């Protein structure tokens, strides 16, 4: 079936209309940012008291530091709003009938991660074949893993599923470990099998992250656009939105805490990855990459790398500037099962990102922005309003005004953006859920709990930095994955 015939198919036209409707629903709101910003500006100016103490100068710096990331995030949200306004002029979605899609799903293969893996893999074979006539799902696992028999049975249940087993004695040339090692093995296998081609795309997914109909239509739409683009302008990489449906959550608390993640996708990642330069990194799920480009970069970044997706993104910035994009598809993950796992997850990310920020193999011009964002994260516990008030009480100085009044506007911008991320992220997660809407009390709860969520995020970041500073051995911690 050719693309022309498919585009005239009424069923695909109806799905295109549904896609446009869903895309409009994802449009970031302005009021959830504007209202807190105005209120915070008025309150800040009203309560301002001149101060030149050491505490005021420290606060002037640390509470202003996030502004670079905030401005990029606001830009990304505005770019999405502009794209939605132009959505009626977008080409109707059609199957990617001339390209081959390989879904790569690495898994540690433990019994406590298998239920989520099964849920995710079954979603690939359910929703992707209609839009990708040439499709294969590769489950990537380690030789001798706990759930090997279950994984083999899952592969036997559908002809599109294949298991790739990484031999225990496999060691890449640069000695990379963990997930990057497995990805590099799969990348070398594709080269050996003659699949490292421009029309072969690799969709990287996590073993707890599924897809839906909107994922398939949006991804096919993106890939088809690259065929029509000029060769010098066609994109080689793209990323969509990671959401957390309510039904996948074991803990309501961590589900609310993870509202910040989809908001980051429609903000910073939309601005940077969507404009061609993924300087803030990418996440390892719903990341699509040409197999020919992945063959040139590879995943063999060395034995200390535990944030292979971010390292890949910064290498991509250097080799292929301007050639990444962002698309309006969602994938469906699951929040950590409890607060302890939430902190452990953030700790690993921070540990790896801090190391990447100090990695001189990556030119500074490609890692400075990520370094600013990571510094803001690591300093989180010291920036917390509770910590600031405690220090003020101890030094008998409760004046938390900045050194100059104009900084109040920067602070209002930063704090309003934090409120917006949780508000909008919650909305996106609710849209991805069966009900499609938030419960009346959830927006109130998520905003009220921001100080608590900030403690957990900051604690994970600080612990990650501490482990890096102590030069502890890198560990790729994999938390349990809820079904």
TrEMBL record:
The chain crosses the membrane at residues 30-48, 54-80, 368-395, 407-423, 444-465. Coiled coil: none annotated. GO terms for cellular component: cytoplasm. It comes from the Bacteria. GO terms for molecular function: beta-1,4-mannosyltransferase activity. SUPFAM superfamilies: Nucleotide-diphospho-sugar transferases. Residues 201-417 form the Glycosyltransferase 2-like domain. Keywords: Membrane, Transferase, Transmembrane, Transmembrane helix. This is Membrane glycosyltransferase. It comes from Streptomyces shenzhenensis.
């Amino acid at each position: 079936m050719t693309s022309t015939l498919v585009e005239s198919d009424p069923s695909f036209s109806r799905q295109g209309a549904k896609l446009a409707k869903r895309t409009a629903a994802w449009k970031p709101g302005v009021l959830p940012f504007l209202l807190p910003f105005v209120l915070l500006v008025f309150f800040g100016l009203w309560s301002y008291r001149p101060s030149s103490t050491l505490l005021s100068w420290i606060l002037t710096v640390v509470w202003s530091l996030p502004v670079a990331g905030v401005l990029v995030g606001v830009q990304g949200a505005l770019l999405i709003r502009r794209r939605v306004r132009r959505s009626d002029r977008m080409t109707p979605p059609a199957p990617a009938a001339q390209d081959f899609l390989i879904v790569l799903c690495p898994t540690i293969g433990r019994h406590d991660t298998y239920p989520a893996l099964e849920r995710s893999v079954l979603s690939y074979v359910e929703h992707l074949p209609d839009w990708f006539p040439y499709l294969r799902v590769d489950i990537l696992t380690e030789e001798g893993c706990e759930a090997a028999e279950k994984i083999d049975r899952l592969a036997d249940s559908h002809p599109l599923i294949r298991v790739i087993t990484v031999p225990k004695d496999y060691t890449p040339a640069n000695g990379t470990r963990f997930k990057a090692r497995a990805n590099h093995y799969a990348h070398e296998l594709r080269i050996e099998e003659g699949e490292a081609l421009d029309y072969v795309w690799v969709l990287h997914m996590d073993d707890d992250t599924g897809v839906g109909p909107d994922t398939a239509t949006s991804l096919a739409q993106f890939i088809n656009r690259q065929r029509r683009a000029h060769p010098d302008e066609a994109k080689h990489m793209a990323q969509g939105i990671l959401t957390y449906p309510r039904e996948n959550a074991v803990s309501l608390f961590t589900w609310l805490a993870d509202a910040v993640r989809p908001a980051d996708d429609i903000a910073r990642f939309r601005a940077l990855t969507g404009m061609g330069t993924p300087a803030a990194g990418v996440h390892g799920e719903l990341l699509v990459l040409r197999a020919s480009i992945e063959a040139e970069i590879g995943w063999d970044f060395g034995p200390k790398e535990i944030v292979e997706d971010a390292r890949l993104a910064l290498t991509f910035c250097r080799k292929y500037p301007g050639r990444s994009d962002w698309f309006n598809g969602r994938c469906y993950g699951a929040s950590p099962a409890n607060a302890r796992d939430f902190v452990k997850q953030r700790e690993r990310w921070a540990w790896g990102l801090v190391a990447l920020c100090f990695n001189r193999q990556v030119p500074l011009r490609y890692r400075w922005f990520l370094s600013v964002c990571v510094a803001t994260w690591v300093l989180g516990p010291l920036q917390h309003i509770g910590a600031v008030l405690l220090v003020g009480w101890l030094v008998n100085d409760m004046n938390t005004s900045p050194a100059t009044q104009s900084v109040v506007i920067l602070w209002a911008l930063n704090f309003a953006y934090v409120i917006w991320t949780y508000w909008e992220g919650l909305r996106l997660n609710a849209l991805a859920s069966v009900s499609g809407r938030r419960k009346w009390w959830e927006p109130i709860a998520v905003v009220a709990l921001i100080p608590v969520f900030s403690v957990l995020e900051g604690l994970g970041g600080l612990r990650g930095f501490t482990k890096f500073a102590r030069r502890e051995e890198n560990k790729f911690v994999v938390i349990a994955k809820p079904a």
